[in-house]
Amino acid sequence: MAIMGILACKMLQDEIVYLIQNDPDISDVVVIENGEHVEFIEKLDSLGISYRFVQKVEDLPDLNRDFPVSNNSLTLVVWQLDLGYHETPKLLKKRVYEDLPIFIPKADAILLFYGLCGNVLADVESDFKNENCPVIILRDKDGIIIDDCIGGALGGREEYAKVLKSFNGVGTFILTPMYASYSAEGFFGFGQAAGGFTDEQMFELNKYMFEASGYKQVANLETGLHYTPHVEENIQNFADKYHFKIINLGGGNQELFEDCYQKVKKILTFEK
After folding, report:
1. Are 33 and 58 in contact (CB under 8 A)?
2. 206 backbone φψ class: left, alpha, beta (φ>0; ψ -120 to 50)
3. Topology, domain 2-148+254-267
4. CA distance 61 to 52
5. Percent of the chain clearing pLDDT 90 (strictly above)
6. What's the pTM?
């Protein structure tokens, strides 16, 4: 049995659900029950995908490195982190760098479902270079680490740049289904409780930032994934709240996530 760990931004949970749904090699899904898992398991339940809980990664047994990895079945351990870390990239790096040493003894390889995220994770692979448990971050077909979840859904930096250029200078938010679900909760308000902001204060802060940055419209990015409910409603509410125009945006796909996932499976000696 091979064990792949996924340390993930909650914003990319739909992409993880897609990989699980479409990989017959997976025999066991372990979900870390840390409070960030609820929507994720609801989606697994809706698809009839079985899983089991572990409260903390520390509760998993350390692997015996004296035996070669067996590729007759795959266990996936999914550990999602709080969205609030996006507001402070240095805290995100601190959390990821604290969690990886805990995770590495438990897995044969770890796929890090993050991008550069404010350029704080650019060196994570080299900083955690480990022949027993390599850490792999999301990269595009040219080997470039993705900038963020939008860049991943579009296929990488080149495609992302083309889309941004197509807006002709008009400030545009691009929302994936998961991004849309949290835009309804305050957008920059992922960590508002910790910051002590009221909903009204968060609204005024967002409004000021949007106006100062020249944002005029919101793009509904079709990713091909429809696990998250009420996407159009959430985007409409967000647009109405801040007086944005809505545009539809195609081109989203799962190719980059699939390629990175298969790369890690290849490390685990699964045949392609």
Report:
1. no
2. alpha
3. Rossmann fold (3.40.50)
4. 15
5. 79
6. 0.93
Q: In angstroms, rounded to a whole number, what is the distance separating the alpha carbons of residues 37 and 42?
A: 9
CA distance linking residue 36 with residue 31, whole number of Å = 10
| Residue 7: both structure tokens together | 């340390």
Place of tokens 């990488």: 156
**What is the tens place of the pLDDT at every residue in 79-109?**
999 887 777 889 999 999 999 999 999 999 9
Crossing angle for the helix pair 199-213 and 231-242, nearest 10 degrees? 80
Residue found under tokens 């910051």: 195
Which stretches within the chain are classed as H helix?
A: 13-21, 38-46, 89-103, 124-127, 149-154, 157-166, 177-183, 192-195, 199-213, 231-242, 255-267
Distance CA 270, CA 137 (A): 19
Asked if 17 contacts 227 with a C-beta cutoff of 8 angstroms, the reply is yes
Q: Where in the chain do CATH 3.40.50 domains reside?
A: 2-148+254-267
Q: How far apart are CA 163 and CA 174, in angstroms?
A: 10
